[in-house]
Amino acid sequence: MLAIVVILAALVALGVLTLQDQGLIPWLGRDYQNQATVVLESIQQMSVLTTTRYNFSSLVTTEREMPPVLAALYGERQVLIAVGHVTAGIDLSLMGPEDVTITNGVINLHIPPPTLQDCFLNEGASYVAERDTGLFSRSAPQLEGQARRFAIQQFRDTAMQEGILPNVQQQATAALTEFVQLLGIDGVSSVNIITTEPDPLAPVALSCQ
């Protein structure tokens, strides 16, 4: 059996990708038949608009679980310094014509739910800081692999608990409002962003499993 202890050392929330830096504002000289189509096509070009990233550093201790007498002879214990991040965003390519409407000078955007995009362990920064083995034990490589998978799962769970998905919605609301205003659609005085709650049954990215 395996005993695993994690000490979470740091959590940092990063901002969204800026629209101007990504070159995502298209040329608007084309003759579109309606304003909603202009907005939809412009948004769909962005694909994933908002990416929020939480950075983590954790201390993960793994060891073979056995009586103390046997541990001195056959046990193994290692300490892994795990560094990585979790990212989340909104896939705007899923939006359709029904998600963009203009009524009385107000443009309404119904955006898809936020999802986890990637759970990443930085192999260059992660390392085994300490390894102790018993007199007759052989090093078990699977201990380190299990520790790395456990660290990623802890990163994922902590990011969810710290509200990474609501954070994405907040960032998306601000970024999309600014983006639509920059489009300069005639007759539009304000932007209304309608968010969608995360689906608890939605598939999880493979890297976050």
In words, what does this structure look like?
The protein has one domain (2-208). The longest helix is centred in the last third of the chain and has 21 residues, at 141-161. It is α+β, with helices and mostly antiparallel strands and 209 residues long. The relative contact order is 0.23. It has helices at 19-22, 35-44, 68-74, 141-161, 164-183; strands at 2-13, 48-64, 76-91, 100-103, 106-110, 115-121, 127-133, 190-194. Residues 1-33 have low confidence and may be disordered. Strands 1, 2, 3, 6 and 7 form a five-stranded antiparallel sheet that branches.
Number of domains: 1
Mean pLDDT: 79
Strand content: 25-35%
Question: With helices defined by DSSP (H or I, 4 residues minimum), what is the helix count?
Answer: 5
Q: How much helicity do the residues have?
A: 25-40%
State the end-to-end CA separation: 21 Å
| Gyration radius, in Å | 24 Å
Structural class: alpha+beta
Taking pLDDT < 50 over at least 5 consecutive residues as the criterion, the unreliable ranges are 1-33
| Main beta-sheet annotation | 5 strands, antiparallel
- Shape verdict: rod-shaped
**SSE topology string:** EHHEHEEEEEHHE
Strand segment count? 8
